[in-house]
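Might I ask for a little of your time on a matter of protein folding? Here, with my thanks, is the record as I have it:
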Amino acid sequence: MKKLYIISLGILASLQWTNAQTISSKKWTDLFSYNNVLAMKEDNGKIIAATENGIFYYTTSTGEITKLSKANGLHDVKITAFDYNSKTKIGLIGYQNGSMDVITPQEIKYVVDIPIAAGYNGSKKINHISITGDQAVVSVGYGVSIFNLKKKEFGDSAFFLSGGIYETANEATIFGNKVYAVTNTGLKSHEMDTTFPVFSTWTTEIPGSFKHIDSEAGLVFSSATAAFMYNNGTATALPITFGNIHDVVTTTDNIIITDQNRIYTFNSNGIAQTTVSVGEECNTATMVGGKVYGGTILSGIKDEANSTYKPSGPYLNYAYKINLYDNNQMLVSSGARGDRYGSQIINPENPGFYYFNGTEWLYSSYFIGNSTAFNILDAVINPMDNNEVLFTNYTYFTQGIYKMKYNSTNKDFDFVKHYDLVANDAYYYRPVGFVSDNQNNLFVSFGFNFGNGSIGIYDKSADNFVVKKFSFTSDAVQKPLLYEGLLWIPMPRTNNFMVYDYKNTPTNTSDDVEYVLKESNGFAGNSKGTLSVAIDKSGDAWIGTDSGLRILSNAATEIKGTNPEVNPIIIEQGGLGEELFRDAQILQIEVDAGDHKWVSIDGGGVYYLSADGQQTIKHFTKENSPLPTNSVTDIKVDRKTGKVYFATYSGIVAYQSDVSDVNSNFGNVVVYPNPVVYSNFKGKVTIKGLAEKTNIRIADAAGNVVHSAVARGGYYEWDLNNVKGTRVASGIYFVLMTNEDGSDKATAKIAVVN
């Protein structure tokens, strides 16, 4: 039986931080894909596997799986290189942006100062890492650098510059006192001496185009189709012609060659031993206890019996929109928008949608190897049949709505129907996003209905969609939001916003009414479109544009008025007013159970705001949190649990907020941390489980009120200051709380130790 533990690597006793900010915490979890295994190392019967966004640690004897990612220790995503020394228990991770993480039993240190050749403007991606003892050689697009694992700092670097052109070090390794590097022009070497940085002093051992190299008991390198053992200037070819070699791995006893079809093992003398296929393409392979394990591209680790080992996660990391359902179900669409939200973007991986059934992630075999081009912008459970999923395909030629049915026997989705609403036309009726009302009527927005957007309404009796073209010109639209019987629809290619009234007669479009907000209604003059919308508990519409935020108060009533007006939020600082998020592109807005707002800014991370937007409670970025990027394409809040999900093109992470479902009465009131010991904790004390509006008084043991406040949204943070603004003395403090009308009360104690 496989067991999954979401903790750090078994080699870590604890996590100490050496960077300026703590990125991860217990409040964060990742929903990354661990399918694409890039590199593996063996340590006493255990396999450490590096994937795109994290590492997992698999114990072959027990099935225990541990994972480590940016949510609980690492500092970045998009891993491109990895190595680990089983003797020193030190691992080194290289990222696409050129940074590294050094993992030791005491700490994880983030290294961003990799040497860069002067005048080099190419990729900073770390191509390969090879550890030998306390030294590692790091291969990059402009040469190699030596990294000292004890000192955690770089030593000499050799920039492969010849004739004004930098030569890429595909891979490199340390063997003896020499560094051997494979490039597209040959196997090159140099002793680790004073002339190491001078590229003209390097020796080309063998000319040719080579891809991979490794060394332990011996030195082995490869071209695309041939592998060689190298000894004292002599290269001896292994006795097999390979097909597109993906990796070369050496151990004290074995040589392991992985190509696109099979895994080949040889003894240390180069004599062929076994040929293994795990049923799919692998990036790498290793041996544990005489057994071959493949690091696959799409299924994690596989053994010779085709058994799979990996942490649970979606099929791929690309994510665009999230839809949450009862029983912890989740649907994730994998598409993308481009060119002012109008053009198609076809991902070369051609992903579909990912489904979490509450306990495990499932992926439909329909998408595997399918030649149909998919750009899925939304996927929803059919409100009329919970065993069906509908998704929008926003492409040329294969555009339309697709219906799938869940097959419980094999935990798969079977294709049912493709609703191609305009045959033989490559450009129009491109569906975007779904929404349903409380009568289970299903709506879908369409872009490019011969120059205009449109709305589609599902006709249950005909099993088809009735499409109503907008009279207002706007060829691109976003996913609708339904509120008070109205469809609220951002228009990303024009400085307008539409509200569509279907008059509670979904399939009768003759009486439908369109309301359009324009620049004259208050949108910024430099805005080129509206991108997002959310309705808060006061009934105000928060509209995100590509040039700021606008609020339509009492939205359902005002939109039908003679001249509705949208307004920015003005923050006063030092007597001067400043517009909140002025000129920022607002990708997504979400409202939690406490009426607080989560706002995603393109390139600016996510802001968590007070109900009125006047205060920034938190600001999460790629730099200070586990967010994979600073452009979050979707935010969803599970109001029952308070968990907040963030979708990005680089993966999904979740944050456990302090605000869950709240009402007029108290829930389970919890204070943490408690006791508050200043030497261990210098932040604010959180009180959660409060009523929607709570009157708070905090008194000392003598009954003196030291702090009072009104909390909204179900929780409150006290900075431990008294009414004079200074920190309270050590002692026991009593928290006295009543709800808004005084009908419910609660108390708590806080112990403070200074």
